[in-house]
Amino acid sequence: MSSTSKELAKDKGQGGKPLSAGELQKMDAYWRACNYLCVGMLYLRANPLLREPLKAEHIKNRLLGHWGSDPGQTFVWVHLNRLIKKYDLDLIYLSGPGHGAPATLSNSYLEGVYSEVYPDKSEDVAGMLKFFKQFSFPGGIGSHCTPETPGSIHEGGELGYSLSHGFGAAFDNPDLIVTVVVGDGEAETGPLATSWHSNKFLNPVRDGAVLPILHLNGYKIANPTVLARITPEELEWMFKGFGWEPHVVEGDDPATMHQLMAGVMEDCVKEIRAIQKKARSAPKGTEPERPRWPMIVLRSPKGWTCPKEIDGHKLEGSWRAHQMPILDPVTNPKHLKLVEKWMKSYKPEELFDESGKLIAELREMAPVGKRRITANPHANGGLLRKPMELPDFRDYAVKVEKPGQIEVSPTDVLAHFLRDAMKMNMTSFRVFGPDETASNKLQAIYEASGKTWMAKLLPEDADGGDLARDGRVMEILSEHTLEGWFEGYVLTGRHGFFSSYESFVHIIDSMFNQHAKWLEKSKLELRWRAPISSINLLITSLVWRQDHNGFTHQDPGFLDVVTNKSPEITRIYLPPDANCLLSVGDHCLRSSNYVNVIVADKAPHMQYLNMDNAIKHCTKGIGIWDFASNDAGDEPDVVMACAGDIPTEEALAAVAILREHCSDVKIRFVNVVDLFRLMPDTEHPHGLSEREFDGLFTKNKPVIFNFHAYASLVHKLTYKRTNHKNFHVRGYKEKGNINTPLELAILNQIDRFDLAIDVIDRVPRLQLTAAHTKEWLKGQIIEAVNYAHENGIDSKEIREWRWPL
């Protein structure tokens, strides 16, 4: 590469060596202490400082963990500590390699932070033993940088998101440097490959910096890594093409590598500060240009400093060092001796005093107070979080004098609220979406801020492009990158809002899973982690309005994924109109420690509730709509229930048909906003008690439930209920194409005609008296489909249907 480690080490003084002999000795000793702790975590349950000969009974019975990336990561950490102290840096560290927690844990312990958070893991022999034993041990902690790990905002349970999390942390944090170690196996994932482009969205004036360190140690579990086997030239071209300035540190001799890394890393910090100073000192009105930010390629052996060979096979520098380099020390005396020799090679007797604490001169190597990486408050973002300032959502209300008479786009109404929310939080709130902000009718937000764009601008971009160097709307056509930015942003104390097409929010299924797991641990088990802002996901461009995109864009199954996660974390809202959406949106932006999923379409929809009634309805989460019911004072013949905007309209239309053609039928109309209200209160905090549920849905009457998503989900949520056997749920049946809205509803039997037939079939006396009506309804279905196929749209009668006054 053009910027090699040797070139960058020149002219540093001391014969091209940035570190004095004393600095080198201390840094290497601190590194050895980190590595010793890493190996101790992997192997030991007794004899933590090897003050007696290592025996089989000192070894854990199950050896679970990964060694391969740990020494490279601890090497990086030691050098970060030096620069934090030298330049008083505000810096956090994200560990990207899979199962790389020992590196972070060991440093947290040596910094004293771990013992402060967990006093029983004290800085002595007894505390060290507990620290070792808990790792990958029942009742202990996992091998990722889980929420239990101080200093972590990136668990790494799934590879690919470290860099996007890092950029999310850097946005609007002008003094923060986020160092992200990217594993070379992780670098093969799609999300990570895309996230290199995040540098086109980082503004050096208002944002912090991200220093990626690609850790090329050559192997995954059992295969070489792609980036470690391409030529240095190809690697350089790749990163230069991504807009980075790569610097390389490579080798295996610790003394040489320390000198090289010290020079390269210090140069990178100086480059970062020079870029920021230039941008921030430019004359007022000067728009910053995208800089070429520095990055580091660290090429070190896999499992660096472990034994070179085992049983004639290469160990250090091979795939065998990825997980547990020595697998059977309990049953193989030869291998037990090898583990002992390996651990003693770090010379623990020189590193820890008689009590078991790191010796004083090495403790001085770490920063102090909040400058310690694992004590940095940005890695416990709830400590920094301030509630959003929000306008009064009531000021944006749609005027509804009578239900079901006017149509508006709910998301357009919400956009005006979000616009003003952004104006009031111009350093702590961002909106995320994959090139769909305008498509989702949220374009009013651009009145507060354009789209962040640090790449090249063309004159025509000014003509409605809404691109801005200081924009706060984050758009890139990668849901993974967006969600990673969003998570990093809220994990470091800020607020956000994400909108996505319904069918493609599935792209972040597993990211949602990982974040929900993080929140569950943090909220329920870790009192020292302060609450962070909720992840707010607006799902729009819904299954029932895909007449131009077709079958590929029809999938409401994300809700099924959400319901699998902890009830303490997940919330699902299906507001039936714009005023309900405003109420829900305000509630979600004010909340913390949740993933809020809001389902609301962008197309014009019928409006039902004035703002006062919308607030009451959303507060209850579920309720009877009196205007659509005629059972007051009587026992209903049937309960017509619904959740979702289109299902609500079709259910209301079915009620109108029945009340016209079967005037004596008693119908109770129930609308659901908060989906988890369907669950028992013993299963979810928002669940209804049995008495409340039976009061709404009765104990023995038929319930026709028109649902936005897959019908099985409602059955899943209500299967324990008294009247579950009488629940007849209509939802999406995986049928669709380029259909009109009503035709698509008919294909999946959520339409007004099929719902009315359902009622006739399940109310015994209507089976005898409404046969003619049922035949007429069947005819309406045929006519509607034929009209759509003939004219390409639904009939005027359907398109302009209103609730009868």
UniProtKB/TrEMBL annotation:
Sorted UniProt keywords: Lyase, Thiamine pyrophosphate
Looking at the record, the residues that make up the Xylulose 5-phosphate/Fructose 6-phosphate phosphoketolase C-terminal domain are 602-803
What enzyme category does the UniProt record give?
lyase
Cofactor section: thiamine diphosphate
Q: Does the keyword Lyase apply?
A: yes
TM stretches of this protein: none
An MF annotation (GO) of this entry? aldehyde-lyase activity
What does the record give as EC number?
Answer: 4.1.2.-
GO terms for biological process, alphabetical:
carbohydrate metabolic process
Residues covered by the Xylulose 5-phosphate/Fructose 6-phosphate phosphoketolase N-terminal domain = 21-383
The family database entries (Pfam families) matched by this protein are listed as: XFP (PF03894), XFP_C (PF09363), XFP_N (PF09364)
The keyword Lyase is annotated on this UniProt entry: yes
The family line of this record is: Belongs to the XFP family.
Instruction: Please give the NCBIfam families that the UniProt record associates with this protein.
Output: PRK05261.1-2, PRK05261.1-4
Name of the featured protein: Probable phosphoketolase
